């Protein structure tokens, strides 16, 4: 989901009437010095990256004059912090802070409603606030149809110990953050941390965070997050098509395309344990599963791939549609590297028929395409593999072998081994599969 950098969030905040410090974004030390001169008072220099805890990482510096501002910017720009290279810094007036508060709004999935968060302590991560000062923290689950009411914000401010003379002002900031930012911009998360009370009695958003729902970006075409300006061609293509695409290491040897993050992360664990490397993870589940062939063409542009794994366990997704799309793309592109396709679940019977037919075509074309599904025994075609209990692990094992990597399990030490679990599972499968009415399950029982 689009995560706005601090300066981008503050531009929106200012537009919507929330007070932020005077400041400008600099890309060079010279610009930082010039902006500090224009501000005409001590400044703070803050790296602009999509991550929190920037201050603790050394990404926030103070400067008493323009020369110090230029020097501070030189020490920050071009460096890497928290895994991100710094291209820009925000040069802002240094506030004379009397007190810090916290306010935020987040999607509460458990409660299925927005949650408004408020604390009379600020300037630290919200998790730290709730741990150290639970009595100074309040959470309001808001009725999505009625929305946040001013009295709710006032009651919460009073509950967490906001000074009486500031309750109305803080409540109004919370109210505006909810309606003018969270609701208006379809946010999944937004916060002001800290919300500062200055020595002259003003409430100012010293920091700002805003993350917008991906599926709502069509309503906010005027917003182009900085983080998306540096996308490579694959990432741009994935965004246009609506794929969930995470490029992990463009120089790695294995691409994983699956229909869910859970299955994708399982593949990643298996690959990492064996000493392999995933170049990317792509989710073609839900609305984009019909574009599986296009997804294959996209990942094949990765420069050092040795194999592609399609790992699909269909629910709403249809395995036969994915199998058809991938096979058509394979015949069109004629990849020089091995492709392994695992297609189980909804539409599995149709997927098996497609794979049996296309396997012969791939063999004639000299392509390496292997496959399996939950009910496949390994006898369906020369390129098929038994699924069953091993339907998650087998494809990963085979792909690693195709890349010249010996497959091995190396689970973390905190996870105790239970070899008896696999034995028990196979015994249960052998007993229960013949009880299923479908003939393919009866056949599979012979191979477990």
Describe the structure.
The protein is α+β, with helices and mostly antiparallel strands. It folds into three domains: 1-20 and 96-230, D-amino Acid Aminotransferase, Chain A, domain 1 (2-Layer Sandwich); 22-94, Dna Ligase, domain 1; 231-410, Succinyl-CoA synthetase domains (Rossmann fold). 36% of the residues lie in helices and 23% in strands. It is built from 14 helices and 20 strands. The strands form four sheets. Strands 1, 8, 9, 10, 11, 12 and 13 form a seven-stranded antiparallel sheet that branches. A seven-stranded mixed sheet has the order 14-16-15-17-18-19-20, with helices on both faces. A four-stranded antiparallel sheet has the order 2-7-3-4, covered by helices on one side. Helix 10 links the parallel strand 17 (307-314) and strand 18 (339-345). Helix 5 crosses helix 6 and helix 9 packs across helix 10.
Contiguous low-pLDDT stretches (5 residues minimum) are: none
How many domains would you count in the coordinates?
Answer: 3
CATH architecture of the largest domain: 3-Layer(aba) Sandwich
Helix content: 25-40%
Kindly state the number of beta strands: 20
Strand-residue proportion: 15-25%
Q: What is the tally of helical segments?
A: 14
* Global mean pLDDT: 91
- From the N-terminal CA to the C-terminal CA, the straight-line distance is 42 Å
The radius of gyration over CA amounts to: 27 Å
């Amino acid at each position: 989901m689009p995560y706005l950098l601090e300066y981008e969030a503050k531009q929106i905040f200012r537009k919507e009437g929330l007070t932020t410090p005077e400041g400008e974004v600099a890309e060079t030390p010279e610009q930082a010095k010039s902006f500090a001169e224009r501000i005409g008072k001590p400044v703070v220099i803050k790296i602009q990256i999509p991550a929190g805890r920037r201050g603790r990482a050394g990404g926030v510096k103070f400067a008493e004059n323009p020369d110090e501002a230029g020097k501070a910017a030189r020490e920050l720009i071009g460096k890497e912090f928290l895994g991100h290279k710094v291209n820009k810094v925000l040069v802002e007036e240094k506030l004379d802070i009397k007190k810090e508060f916290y306010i935020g709004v987040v999607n509460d999935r458990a409660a299925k409603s927005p949650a408004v968060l408020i604390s009379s302590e600020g300037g630290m991560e919200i998790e730290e606030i709730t741990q150290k000062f639970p009595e100074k923290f309040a959470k309001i689950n808001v009725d999505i149809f009625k929305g946040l009411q001013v009295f709710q914000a006032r009651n919460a401010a009073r509950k967490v110990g906001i000074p009486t003379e500031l309750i109305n002002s803080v409540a109004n900031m919370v109210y505006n953050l909810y309606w003018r930012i969270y609701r208006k911009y379809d946010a999944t998360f937004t916060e002001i941390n800290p919300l500062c009370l200055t020595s002259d009695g003003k409430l100012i958003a010293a920091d700002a965070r805003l993350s917008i729902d991906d599926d709502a970006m069509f309503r906010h075409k005027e917003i182009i997050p900085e983080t998306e300006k540096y996308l490579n061609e694959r990432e741009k293509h994935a965004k246009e098509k609506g794929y969930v695409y995470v490029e992990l290491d463009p120089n790695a040897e294995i691409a994983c395309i699956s229909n869910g993050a859970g299955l994708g992360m399982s593949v990643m664990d298996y690959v990492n344990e064996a000493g392999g490397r995933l170049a990317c993870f792509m989710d073609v589940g839900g609305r984009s599963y019909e574009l599986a062939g296009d997804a294959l063409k996209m990942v094949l542009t990765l420069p050092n791939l040795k194999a592609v794994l399609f790992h699909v366990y269909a629910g709403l997704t249809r395995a036969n549609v994915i199998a058809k799309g991938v096979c058509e793309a394979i015949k069109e592109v004629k990849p020089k590297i091995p492709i392994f396709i695992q297609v189980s679940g909804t539409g599995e019977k149709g997927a098996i028929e497609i794979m049996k037919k296309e396997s012969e075509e791939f063999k004639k074309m000299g392509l390496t395409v292997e496959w399996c599904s939950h009910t496949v025994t390994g006898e369906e075609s020369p390129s098929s593999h038994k699924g069953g209990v091993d339907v998650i692990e087998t494809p990963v094992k085979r792909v690693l072998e195709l890349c010249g990597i010996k497959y091995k399990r190396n689970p973390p030490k905190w996870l105790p081994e239970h070899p008896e679990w696999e034995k028990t599972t196979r015994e249960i499968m052998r007993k229960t599969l013949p009880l299923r009415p479908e003939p393919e399950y009866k056949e599979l029982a012979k191979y477990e």
